[in-house]
Design brief:
With 190 residues, the protein is α/β, with parallel strands linked by helices. The chain is 25% helix and 16% strand. The protein contains five helices and eight strands. β4, α2 and β5 form a beta-alpha-beta unit. The longest helix is centred in the last third of the chain and has 16 residues. It is globular and about 35 Å long.
Length: 190
């Protein structure tokens, strides 16, 4: 496969606001350790349900930009999106992050009829690596201090996933998001 240098990729929004992402992009640079090739790179979604901590949202926004994911934020937030901490954590990338805000989870869910939702929680036994993430998947993370509502978990038991851990009851939200987001990317490289 020939190596193509890409200096600038523009995102194009369709009528549904979904970013078009090129497939079969080769980001591998000859002789550059650590570069990689994404043979199949398609849209997936990260949902933060009522996020409370601005720097976690900023860091997750930066992860979304790095992986080609769209970030969905469900109100209410524990901060303003204009908050300097959100922008600081997202660095100068925040303006490039594909972000959509929603008044409720139900509003997002109704607009994503074809998508499959996965709910990250400590209250299940199914590990995230046991899930096969389809093309149009949504990874849903709860607020930092309380997690996703029990009613949402109970109505979606089959799609609840966990990150196994020992010695702690939970991980930082941005860390947890990164772990699962890169599993989606890994599965799409097969």
């Amino acid at each position: 496969m020939p190596v193509v240098a890409i200096n600038n990729i523009s995102r194009v929004n369709d009528d549904h606001g979904l970013s078009s992402v090129l497939s079969k992009i080769n980001l591998q640079k000859p002789g550059v350790p650590g570069s990689f090739s994404l043979h199949y790179f398609s849209m997936f979604h990260v949902v933060l349900y009522q996020p409370e901590i601005p720097h976690n949202t900023g860091a997750i926004g930066r992860l979304c930009l790095a992986t080609g994911a769209r970030l969905h934020l469900i109100k209410p937030f524990g901060f303003s999106l204009d908050d300097a901490q959100v922008k600081r954590a997202g660095l100068d990338y925040w303006r490039e992050v594909d972000v959509k805000t929603w008044d409720s989870f139900e509003e997002l869910h109704a607009s994503a009829a074809d998508g499959e939702f996965f709910f990250l929680t400590t209250k299940t036994s199914r590990n995230y690596w046991d899930a096969a993430f389809p093309e149009d998947c949504y990874l849903v993370f709860g607020p930092e201090t309380r997690g996703l509502p029990e009613s949402l978990l109970q109505s979606n038991v089959a799609n609840c996933l966990r990150i196994p851990m020992q010695g702690t009851r939970s991980l930082n939200l941005a860390t947890a998001a990164a772990i699962v987001m890169y599993e989606v990317v890994r599965q799409r490289r097969r």
